[in-house]
Design a protein that fits this description.
Riboflavin biosynthesis protein RibD, APOBEC/CMP_deaminase_Zn-bd, NADP binding, Cytidine Deaminase, domain 2, about 25% strand, 5-amino-6-(5-phosphoribosylamino)uracil reductase activity, alpha/beta
């Protein structure tokens, strides 16, 4: 096998951890000896063996003198598991090919230096962009202290998210709703606002029967559901709301009310900024908890608040072939007077999604 194919296989393995590794990065590893794969593995979840260890176990004695292809620089520190560089050195591999250096300050090139000091040849940069794409959230958290933030909205062709009376179920079709389930499962946390919970009785859970995934991937997703986060500055949502009865959640608030938040609910208090939860501080707090990717499913006011602060990395629009009319609610509650002040986006993907289309855009 040529090096490109070997690293491509490692990336495919890493993708298997899309719904389970948070807060850790998604990593795949392939061990090659005498032109063939003798071991492969991927990191399943935090606290368990890393990809290199799984691959080395499968390779056994055949790892001696082999080349390891890894999508992320092997760790060199003790965390929940021992350093992977030690395992590679002890196995006797002769070369390690790394797609990208680990941005984690605890690693950040130290793994490469340890391997080279042990006489192991190290190369990196092969399929780096694919590897970075797989861990955009982890990279951003390590570099900036903030998670990757996605906004997902179901809208009509004329840019409306609900009728004037709040009715919105359902604007988009079954395929779009299944994709929303997948996006939630991929995320470390899902954020919504009090208006959405009160209006739609939103729960923001993931439901196995609705996940468009293979059985093994769906099971992994259900074992690591995203943290559900409610922004409720004034504690307007009652304890018996569907959002709370659906399971544990985090409530971000500025209210000093001493009311019991209810079983399984956690309060995260902030000093109010203009009477509201400071959104960047909330994202920083989530990042400190290990959130790599955050999905926002909220109403037009909260989405606009995140957008105006330039806190959104990616917008995902599920667009239905419907007109809801001028009295329906707009996607953003953000009055803009001049065309020159409009937020500029660039499309990164446009594809069919059942009876709808999915458009992904990023700030230009």
């Amino acid at each position: 096998m040529n090096p490109m194919d070997c690293m491509q296989r490692a990336i495919e393995l890493a993708q298997l951890g899309l719904y389970s590794t948070s807060p850790n990065p998604r990593v795949g590893c392939v061990i090659v000896n005498q032109g063939g794969i003798v071991g492969e593995g991927w990191h399943v979840r935090a606290g368990q063996a890393h990809a290199e260890v799984h691959a080395l176990r499968q390779a056994g004695a055949a790892a001696a003198g082999a080349t390891a292809y890894v999508t992320l620089e092997p760790c060199c520190h003790f965390g929940s598991t021992p350093p992977c560089v030690d395992a590679l050195i002890e196995a006797g591999v002769k070369q390690v090919v790394i797609a990208m250096v680990d941005p984690n300050p605890q690693v950040a090139g130290q793994g490469v230096r340890r391997l080279r000091a042990a006489g192991i040849s190290v190369a990196f940069g092969l399929l780096e962009q694919q590897a970075r794409q797989l861990n955009r959230g982890f990279i951003k958290r390590m570099v900036t202290g903030l998670p990757l933030v996605r906004v997902k909205m179901g809208i009509s062709l004329d840019g409306r998210t609900a009728m004037h009376n709040g009715e919105s179920q359902w604007i988009t079709g079954p395929a779009a709703r299944a994709e929303t389930q997948r996006l939630r499962a991929q995320s470390s946390a899902v954020i919504t606002g009090a208006d959405t919970v009160l209006r739609d009785q939103a729960r923001l859970t993931i439901r196995k029967a609705e996940l468009p995934l293979e059985e093994s991937q769906a099971c992994l997703a259900m074992e690591r559901p995203p943290l559900r986060v409610l922004i409720d500055s004034q504690r307007r949502v009652p304890r018996d709301a569907a959002f709370f009865t659906a399971g544990p959640a985090l409530v971000a608030t500025t209210s000093t009310s001493l009311a019991d938040p209810g079983a399984g609910q956690e309060l995260l208090m902030f000093d109010a900024v203009d009477g509201q939860v400071p959104l960047e501080e909330l994202l920083k707090a989530l990042a400190k908890r290990g959130a790599n990717e955050v999905l926002i499913e909220a109403g037009s006011r909260l989405v606009a608040a995140f957008a105006r602060l330039n806190l959104v990395d990616e917008y995902i629009f599920h667009i239905a072939p419907k007109f809801l009319g001028s009295s329906a609610k707009p996607a953003l509650a953000w009055p803009i007077d001049k065309l020159g002040d409009a937020m500029k986006l660039e499309f990164t993907s446009v594809r069919p999604l059942g009876e709808d289309i999915c458009v992904i855009a990023r700030p230009a």
